[in-house]
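Entry for the shared binder. Reason: the reviewer on the internal report wants the predicted structure included alongside the sequence.
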Amino acid sequence: MLDTARAHLSVVPEHEHDHIDEVEGTRSLRVIDGFDRAAHWARLLGTTLLVTFVIGLVGALVVHASLIENQRALDEQRRAISELEADTESLRHELAELEAPARVVAEARDLGMIDAPAVTYLQIPGGLLDERTIIVAENQLLTG
């Protein structure tokens, strides 16, 4: 049986490639010169394309996962910024209420302070604020 298979796999000249075996009614097999080399290169090309596709697919998945993780971190930072802005606005509002002149006066009265009987403005001779000028201003307060 092995000899029969070898006989069918023998190299057939180009002009006899359509020969039909009269006895069995089947085509004889033939080996085409260079077919083994072409098949090798086709397998190599197919394998290379498959490996390239798989690597590209894995790379795309890695990039996509990285994008999702970065977007999640960005959303978290935006949420934190939004919370901080709300806290800042709340603190500004509270500070404005604490600095209100009416509230400061009310707190001073609660502490036992009284309104000044008169307002005295200090005059600075020469317009410069040096040690001598400060002493003169202190004397005006003490005598005035």
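Summary line for the report: DSSP finds four helices and no strands in the chain.
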